[in-house]
Predict the structure.
Amino acid sequence: MIRTEELTKSFDNLLALDKLNLNVKKGSIYGLVGVNGSGKTTAIKHLTGIYRQDAGTVTIDGESVYDNTGIKKRVGYIPDDLYFFPNYTIKAYAGFYKRLFKTWDDERYKSLLRTFGLNDRFNINRFSKGMQKQAAFIFIMSAMPDVMILDEPVDGLDPVVRRLVIQRIVEDVSEREMTVLISSHNLKEMEGICDSIGILKRGKMAIERDLDELKSDVHKIQAAYPDEVPPGIEKYKGLNIRHIETRGSVEIMVVKEKEEVIRRAIAQFKPLVYDLLPLSLEEIFIYEMEGEYNEILV
Amino acid sequence: MFQIDLKSRMPIYEQVVNNFKRLITTGLLKPGDRVPSVRELAKALTCNPNTVQKAFRELESQGYIYTVPGQGSFISEPPAEGSEAKAEAILEKIGELVYELEFLGITRDKIVEKIMKG
């Protein structure tokens, strides 16, 4: 549904996106993550047709996005830094969106206003940041887009509203197969609702996978030995070890390998007990990025 | 019906699968009962419909539920035959656990006591 191929973009001498390949399936909720400055927002601004790429392609439903009003009418976008015209009330803004989006649903707009408890006669610029986000969300959801692109959507929202927002998104995904791309640093929240994850690293796609597959591929192992930990990392030759440390007679590892392979490798050293735990998305992210920071430190 | 634990390390689809198995084995869901649709469940749990879909596929392939096109999914009758091998395999796993527990100094009496408590 959403696709970039070899997408490249530089700002002056800074290479922001470096042959980025991104692929989001229809009806999927895709989480785009990465450290600050890895190119998430730049990528999003290409997907929404704000930036024009230096090289590569950006397509939604097979059509190029830049300057394509037909596609843009089907895409709802909430940027991280919201902008509203001065002296507009919520009501006036709803009228503006209604003219832009043919798919606008008035019933839904009214019901969302009630759900979030916003008064549509208020000037939107006098709202707090969180309430402006809520208003932006109401407009986008009422526009009934086929694709929704959200940059840090729940940033600044209270837990109650957050849950409401997520609930509404999930509803639209299951009822009309809306496709969603979310960029966020809140990995715990992402883990709860995304089915696919793309991890950006310096403008490139480092990992792009189904979330469950990604999680079943990386494990944390804690093995306790009767006396000492058998020395040397070489003993696990062939295992893809991302991290290893010894604390007393306990060895802790993060290994990128299937469960059975790890179990077989560990069993031959006969630990007293060992635990094999799947990693949380947050842990996977940190271990993936560890190398990145080491390089920066050197 | 049940809750998803977002703090758990267990993947969400696995949690859904396990919760359904428990509802079925405890008899809260009976053979022939209609399973909520993917949509309904995704909404109720506030989780991704694709994840729920995946859990349903897993339950179906394990024979816990079946799907009637256009009508939805239903709880299966417990299999009359062919399940012995599977039960045997699971019993085998209990053997391994008991062995591991004994290794850690837990007596068989204690294990039995725990099993009886459910």
User: Anything to note?
Assistant: The domain at 12-75 of chain B is CATH 1.10.10.10 (Arc Repressor Mutant, subunit A). Chain B has a mean pLDDT of 84. Chain B is about 55% helix and 10% strand. Chain B touches chain A at residues 4, 6, 9-13, 38-39, 42-43, 46-51, 54, 100, 104 (CB under 8 Å).
